[in-house]
Task: structure prediction
Amino acid sequence: MSVDKLITQNFRNLKAQTLTFHSDINFILGNNGSGKSSLLEAIFYLGHGKSFRTNKIDSLANYNSESFVISIKSHTSKQLGIAKNTLTGSTEIKLNGEKLNRLSELAINFAVQIITPESFKLFFGGPKERRRFFDLGMFHVKHQFSNYWREFSKVLKQRNACLRNPTQYQMLGYWTDKFCELSENIAGERTLYLVNLKEELLLWLKILLPELSDDIHLQYLQGWNQKKTLKDILDTNSIREKELGYTTSGAHKFDIRFTIGKLAIENILSRGQQKLFLLALTLAQAKLIEDVKRVKPILLIDDIGAELDFNSRTAFSLAIKRLDCQIIISAIAKDVLEPIIPSDNNYKMFHVEHGEILEITG
Ligand SMILES: Nc1ncnc2c1ncn2[C@@H]1O[C@H](COP(=O)(O)OP(=O)(O)OP(=O)(O)O)[C@@H](O)[C@H]1O
Ligand SMILES: [Mg+2]
Result:
């Protein structure tokens, strides 16, 4: 789905207002501190149930408020909303007027990906962010994945509780067997997904980073040594795991590394190249989500001007023409957008000032 209307109340500095977006391309212009990132953050929050820039939920509500509301009407007239009380932590989630118990039921309708000036630091900074990135694609492309994942998370919790409590050691074998089976299932789904992603990535790298496209390789680490069975590894490590109180190998430890020769790409690529690489990867994943034809992906790009020169922005504009996805791009000034603005006038542009967002027409 794509965002037709967005309404926020008491979200950061944004004024209570209804915005109507273009189904394909939208530009958000505004000075530092005007509210561009806040607007993208509101949309991201609805897709992920969290911010891309803070874990502190109370910083999301306006200084003068203890709650905020974000709601969206899609171009297919679906209505999605979240109301959050930052004092009590309570959340109300609604889809077409009906209350939902789980955020994932909302998120299944809504595939939001974001690139910010900080994205590449996070992505290359550690496996957690990489897992989050690829699991979003898995969630939307492989429908078994969310069921497997929910069950896997429960079993992992049980197994960890068992490891921490000697009175439950007799159950460890049971949870280990279940854990191994689910880890294998998830690893199998991920392997299939990554074969497609790898092929797709190459196409987008040829547009965005042509000089390096053939040299970048993807390495999938499934979360345990592939030469051994997970069961053997866990049995061998059981004394250590009981001391630590958690499971050290399995599908929750998976990672994806990208290399050129023997080196990780983050040690080779310049900052601009790292951003282009991440754009290629994000567009590749958006294409795989789009191909499933259940949701139309939404791409948020915060501060497109950061790190990207004119040629890179031109390559980016060629790339997004190949994608059927809603894109919302923020920038400080219009000149940065020149190579990206479609010549057929088929887009919308907004200006943000002190949290008030106005459409620029004409
Ligand atoms: N909880 C909050 N309540 C009210 N205002 C807030 C809150 N959190 C942040 N702000 C303010 O909201 C404004 C918008 O911040 P935002 O990060 O969206 O700006 P921006 O347009 O992305 O700026 P930049 O170009 O510097 O990235 C800032 O002035 C910030 O100080
Ligand atoms: Mg910003």
The mean pLDDT is 95. Residues 12-13, 30, 32-38, 59, 62-63, 332 surround adenosine-5'-triphosphate (ligand 1) (CB under 6 Å). The two ends are 27 Å apart (CA to CA).
